[in-house]
Write a structure and sequence with these properties.
Elements (H helix, E strand, L loop, with lengths): L3 E5 L7 H8 L2 H11 L3 H14 L3 H17 L3 H14 L5 H13 L3 H13 L4 H17 L3 H9 L6 H12 L5 H7 L5 H5 L3 H23 L3 H42 L3 E4 L8 E5 L1
Antiparallel strand pairs: 1-3, 2-3
């Protein structure tokens, strides 16, 4: 279990009464309950309603940020971006919390260059150590997914404290090698061998057995002049045999993808952040590493 550190991102003294009042809000209680139940889209809608009723720009910014966070968790990435636009319009001083959530949202949508910009902005800003450590890991993982191994290492260099687990994952990726789809396809000419090349041993054995059975059926039906059955079996054998070739190609792609995802997950580790509902409408983030 990673250590938890608290970062008070927005701590305006005049917001304290508003925070106390917000805790008694039925809308907030419903939003928190829906989020806990996994209905993140419903929680996002409740936070939007709170933003519409908020008396100040700062409070509206916090509620819109909360709505964006829930939309991101719901996989509604475009809506999350729209809520973040509203949050920053209402509260321009949101700073790192908005950038971090934008970066997470962009990575979830596989917009790697866009996410790079947001996490780099956090690292260049005068933010807290936990924010920078989080951003450096996400930036490194995003660069690795773009096959920029050197850039991934440079991103980890920007962390305020050494990221040993992330570096170990990157080093392990560097020690490995991708599989060649061309080689996989060529080896697939011999049923099963393309799968073996990709490390998919069960699929390789299955390919050998099925192709052998079909070949035996072809020989047997030809010996007995059962040409109708021979034609049917030959058709299926052609399908399975071509599947062995394509399987070797796909197996190499799967190997490379899994290798990359394993390394990226290792770089990200258990790092995550969540808002503290007790601080609403101020945005206070709880980081886990």
């Amino acid at each position: 279990m990673g250590a938890r550190t608290w970062s008070a991102v927005v701590a305006l003294a005049w917001l304290v009464p508003a925070c106390a009042a917000a805790q008694d809000s039925p809308g907030l209680s419903l939003a928190v309950e829906l989020s806990a139940e996994g209905d993140h889209a419903g929680a996002a809608l409740e936070y939007r309603r709170l933003a519409g009723d908020a008396p100040s720009g700062e409070a509206r910014g916090g509620w819109y940020w909360a709505s964006a966070f829930e939309y991101w968790r719901a996989g509604e990435y475009e809506l999350a971006d729209r809520m973040l636009n509203r949050a920053e319009d209402a509260q321009p001083a949101l700073g790192a919390p908005a950038l971090l959530l934008r970066g997470e949202n962009a990575q979830s949508a596989r917009k790697w260059a866009e996410s790079d910009f947001y996490f780099e902005s956090v690292l260049r800003g005068g933010t807290a150590d936990d924010e920078k450590a989080f951003a450096s890991r996400r930036l490194a993982a995003g660069r690795l997914r773009q096959k920029d191994v050197t850039g991934a290492g440079a991103a980890l260099d920007l962390a305020p404290v050494p990221q040993e687990a992330a570096r170990a994952a990157l080093a392990e990726y560097n020690r490995g090698r991708d599989k060649s789809p061309l080689t996989g396809g060529l080896l697939g000419i011999v049923p099963g061998f393309g799968y073996f090349y990709a490390g998919e041993w069960a699929s390789g054995v299955r390919s050998i057995l099925l192709n052998s059975l079909f070949l035996f059926g072809m020989v047997d039906t030809a010996d007995h002049d059962q040409w109708g059955a021979f034609a049917v079996i030959t058709f299926f054998e052609f399908t399975w045999y071509s599947g062995s070739i394509y399987g070797g190609i796909d197996g190499a792609h799967r190997f490379n993808r899994d290798r990359l995802e394993t390394a990226a997950d290792g770089i990200r580790g258990a790092s995550a952040f969540e808002p503290d509902p007790a601080a609403w409408p101020a945005v206070r983030l709880n980081f886990r590493f």
